[in-house]
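User: Continuing from earlier, I have the next pair ready.

Assistant: Great, send them over.

User: Here they are, in order.

Assistant: Folding the first of the pair now:
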Amino acid sequence: MSVLDFIKHLRASRPEAPGADAPQHAPAAGPVVKTRRRLFTKYVALFVAVVCVALVSNGVFDVLFYYQEHKASLIRIQREQAEAAAAKIGQFIKEIESQLGWTTQLPWSAGSIEQRRFDALRLLRQVPAITELAQLDATGKERLRVSRLAMDVVASGADLSNDPKFTEAVARKVYYGPVYFRRESEPYMTLAIAGTRRDAGVSVAEVNLKLIWDVVSQIKVGERGHAYVVDAQGRLIAHPDISLVLRNTDMSKLAQVRAARASASGGAGTGDNPSQTVQEAENIEGRKVLTAYAPVAPLGWLMFVELPAEEAYAPLYAALQRLAFVLLGALGFAVLAGMFLAGRMVGPIQALRIGAARIGSGDLGQRITIKTGDELEALADQFNDMAGQLQESYAGLEQKVEQRTREVEEKSRQLEMASQHKSQFLASMSHELRTPLNAIIGLTEMMVTNAARFGTEKAAEPLRRVQRAGTHLLGLINQVLDLSKIEAGKLELSPESVNLTPLIDEVIGTARQLAEQL
């Protein structure tokens, strides 16, 4: 019996779990494959998760920063456009003020009505936005009215001394009236200028704001963006869609207009910075827009520039799509790279597990070959050293077992020969002893018979004792032969009941002679 057979015999003698009747290699191969699959999936999932988290985090932060920067850039551009347009409108009004101011340089006593009428007509030709000009004296009475839409009126005497256009102009030197719509069509406003001298009176001009539409229409905001102007009450006075202006559209309900008006009036929490107001809101059509505004000084109007949200964020959506494609590509690459790296990591572990399973099953000649240059290779070398040491130990142990087996076989052979010699000796001895003993017993029987025949009973008794002793001795010899059969396993014992009285009498008769001699 070899050492490996002995070890397998010991393993077979231990209790086994259910299903352990399968070959030794089969259960070892199953866990190895299962472990490899679990580690492989774990490594791939971990690598892909790390790569995806890094890419998604980077992409999300990039998109967020890009969104904030892009939004701030659009708002800044729109605000600059709104400020530029507001400056143009303000410049437009200032030019009208400057032209209108020439009519209030001289007092009424210094010139004739005809001269003033001539100056007024020349002003209407130079400033097309002025559709009507009225000149009031120092008491607030109308002295002259020149109009593009009606007949000229001279010395009408209309008292406007309590009209805001006169009182405000006298108090502040300039008066900006509210926007109104003449015949519910075009927007107008009243502009009144007081002279530097009290007796110069006040010049009141009705200004057609339709010319401001050209300024608004020239503002280009993307492809579908636009600009519009509202007055201090939130009514629309300039818009690319003229129909909205002609319908006297109220824009004050829009969140961006409300916030801008509150900011312009110094509302709580708004301040005077246009960048702090609503930047994303809904337009008059209910669509999301990105909006910025600028106040039109000194009229109190508000210039708005709006860009549809889908157009404003189109670059952001494109960036998100590119990011999605990049993430998908990176995910595929991460899966492939994860599978490659996981294979590189799990492969040596699989080889180590398979080699260890084979060594554990008794294949001590198995060697694990791993060339990774790391701890796994060192572990494989340790397994190989252990297997080599076990192989040497098992080889020495097997040699000792074989030597002991040969010694035992030699002893068994010697004992068998001694037993044969003993059997031969006993057979020869019994043969040599039984032949003369049978002769003695037979002669004694004859002598006992003759003594009984000749009446010498006294001599017959010793002869009977001799006969009984010989018979007993023959029985002992036969018992010795039976004992040899018992040792050889060839004799079966049969217990029987024996009467001890004759045996005791015979022993007493045999021993009496010896006792008498002593």
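And the other member of the pair:
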Amino acid sequence: MLSAPFWYRFIYMNISALCQRSKYYLAWQIADLVCNASGLGFNGYDENGKAKWNLCTNVNIIQLETSTSIKHFIDNWNISTQRWIRAVAYERLPKGRTLAAFVLSAMWHGFYPGYYCTFVSGAIFVYAGRVIRQYVRPIFQINDYTKSLYALITWIGTIASINYMALPFVLLGLKHSLQFYSLPCLEIMSLISRHYFDLIKKDLFFDEITKLILENLEKISTNLDTQISNEKILKTIKFIEEFARCLATSDLRQMNSIDLNDCCKLWYSLLNSKFSSENHLVNV
């Protein structure tokens, strides 16, 4: 199998993982049937007065197999255990909650090395997925066609990632897991992707904003009837740059003490000037 072509191993991996999931689907569906037959699955009524029988439901197969993110997949898999892990670990920790939840899940399953290979990989994929979704998803929100394309791409990526990280869970042993992960390309790609988008988030974001602000303010200031001191312009630039930096790091508490009043007055002067922004502003 290790000497087989990549496309063959990829198809084999996905078919094998689907077959492995099917036995869990069967067991959980039978358990759900028994609970509902005994009345334990009754969960009240919805807004239309229809009875809900999902109190003991442990898997949502359709939502799971059509997931466009690993988080959505996990939310619909082994639901009762996920609810317990969230209450015990995830919601109690201020930092490192995702990794802690995955490690606890591995310990809950047992101590086979394959479990830890699977769940540590899962944490890496979730971390990367959050960052990539934050930056890539808005690019595709143009029309229905691009939204559908994004959904298709993320569905393929999600299912392939789940199948890739789940195989050591079945193999159990460290030797076979390491053979399967002899080229851990998805973990490496996930770490690189997360690091790359973090660089964009923390550095390039406010650098580009500052560059655009400088270009526009220079053009505006040269076309104003009233003189505005360079000191005030620089103060405004400093304020906006600092604000952009804090937005990029998601911590507005890092804002330095800047005279916000002067900055607001300057922007008010710019907006109320006779300068026409349509003719002079740099196109963004």
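Worth noting for the second one:
Residues 198-280 form one domain. DSSP finds twelve helices and no strands in the chain.
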